[in-house]
Structure formats: C-alpha cells, structure tokens
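To whoever is on call:

I kicked off a structure prediction for a single chain this morning and the downstream step that reads the tokens threw a length-mismatch warning. I double-checked the sequence; it's 185 residues and nothing unusual in it as far as I can see. Pasting both halves so you can look.
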Amino acid sequence: MGKEYSQISAEHSEFIEKQKLFFVCTAPLSAEGHINVSPKGFDCFRMLSPSRVGYLDIVGSGNETSAHLQENGRITFMFCAFDGSPKILRLYGRGRTVLPVDMEWAELAQHFTILPATRQIIVADISMVKSSCGFGVPLYDYAGERDHAFKWAEKKGEDGLEEYKKEKNRVSIDGLPAPIANLFT
C-alpha cells in the first residue's frame, strides 16, 4: 500500500498535475499552538524540480502558513484523488515565503499566472514523498473554480488589499509574525 520516496517522480508529478485541490499543513513549535491545514485550488501548484515545489498564495483571512514557515520551516502538502484510482500523496519538506519584494520573486513568478489578490509564493524543498491507498477518500465531481476571491480582491482594490493584509495577515492566530509585502510597488 504505502510507499516512501526521496523525491518527486515523473509518476508523482503527473498525479499532482491532475489534482484540482491540494492541502497545505504547517504548525508552530509551541505545543499549545494551532496546526493549520489550508485547501488550495486555482492551478497554483508547480513542481520546480524533483525536490522543490512552489505554490502561488493569495490573500486570505490569515497568514498561518507564512508565520509557521518563518518560525520553523516545516510543511506538508497532501494531494488526494477524488476521481479515478484511489491515491493519496504527501510531500514533506522545509518551506519559506517569497514576497514580491524579494530578489527571487521575478524568477519564481514566471512559473505562475499572477492572480488577483496574489500575496506570496511558498517554496518548499521536499525531503520525503509518501504515497498511500486513498481507499477512504470519497469520489467527487469537479464543477469548477470559485471566483469569489478575485471579485473580492477587485472590489477592495490595491489600497484596500494592502490595508486588509496589514490588519489580517501580519500575525498568526498564535501571535507569530508573518511577513507581508505590497505586490503593487
């Protein structure tokens, strides 16, 4: 059933590219801290090499992933087959946040379509890949992407998004600082 690998194979990459949804998990070091699991869509995940991945992150109601990565770097990605053969694939690694003001931004951004409300790119070096059966994952039909985040971002405008990030994205729910930067400068 489950197997362990040291890097992302061509077969893993093909599976990942077919998924419309993935999950990101991070946690603070504190035992009292909150573990964060976030669902992601919008075709925002990229394999940068067999041991490096990245995803384009849009503004949200919190910035837990970035805060946790800044504190300790630990990150896990999970992909589940919701159609076809059952399968779960997890990528374990160390991640970091790349902001629009960082030198690396221009090189990484070319791998993505910059979406309204783009906040940052999360990059991770993968140290372990694990597959498991996925027998308990239900079958679902993909109906499409939601456009709520983009309409919200357009309504807020550049200044409104920056104010929102300052208010909601600077600190995690556990009080950890999270890096933010203006995409529009």
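Update from on-call: the warning came from a stale cache, not from the record. Cleared it. Sanity check on the structure: The first helix runs from residue 10 to 18.
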